[in-house]
Amino acid sequence: MSLLIIDALNIIRRIHEAIAEPDSEEKVADTIKSSLGSFKRALKTHRPTHAVAVFDHGGRTWKHDLYDGYQANRKPMPQPLRDGLLTLKRELHDMGLHWIAIEGIEADDAIAALVEKWCKYSAKQAIILSTDKDFLQLLNDQVCIYDHFKEVWRDSAYVQEKFGVTPSQMGDLLALMGDAVDGVPGVDKVGRKTAATLLRINGNLDRLISNADKVGGQVGANLRKGIEIARLSRQLVSFKTDRPLGLTWKMLAQVRIPTPPSHTMADSSP
């Protein structure tokens, strides 16, 4: 038994951007066809007993209310592609692959909520299909992340090699270094390597803030000046997991993949 959670727009946007031609109905059609192919390949590769595709709902979320600059410079989805998502969602329905988009929260929040609820429901594996580095903070012995495009697992060894911290420190690292794509400010002039060094010494962001007066040089000055920004950024890279998702595990077990029938799970609400 396992749960596959597909970060749908992470897959779709990357496929769309990789098609080297101007936006057009033909490009959208190619994107939808390739995306569906990727979804089907993921199901065949991982053969989950439960699966769901998670989309952003669009519009403002709690993070926009927290910080006006959040995602302010993100390029909006082209309207033809947005229209094409309706076709893709109908195809997913025909595959038996349930999809959700929850108003007021991001897909990231819904995915984190699904992971949290699954880990309470089952001791079996939860797989997140995404290249989004924010999910690295969810990694543990039960929760896995798979890069669908490179066909590799993103595990704790990857996090250590790439970022110099443990998965449990990733949220603090992202808060310190910021994220220009999402408009997370971070601490001025504190990059990935500096942030990793500070966290290796102090363990976590709260302890680092408590010890800010002991950090020397310009880094220490920037840190002390940016304490409130660091706290704000930590909220912006966190997940809101208390929103109802409107799902049951039985819904997510209806996906059709070429596997022998498994026994039916008792229905309960995530």
Please characterize this protein's 3D structure.
The protein is of the alpha/beta class and 270 residues long. The chain folds into two domains: 2-159 and 247-252, 5'-nuclease (Rossmann fold); 163-236, 5' to 3' exonuclease, C-terminal subdomain (DNA polymerase, domain 1, Orthogonal Bundle), CATH 1.10.150.20. Helix content is 47%, strand content 10%. It has helices spanning 8-18, 25-46, 62-66, 79-95, 107-121, 156-163, 170-177, 192-202, 205-210, 217-225, 227-236, 249-252, and strands spanning 2-7, 50-54, 98-100, 125-129, 143-147, 152-154. The protein has a six-stranded mixed sheet with strand order 3-2-1-4-5-6, with helices on both faces. β5 (143-147) and β6 form a beta hairpin. The longest helix is centred in the N-terminal third of the chain and has 22 residues, at 25-46. It is globular and about 60 Å long. Mean pLDDT is 91; it is low at 258-269.
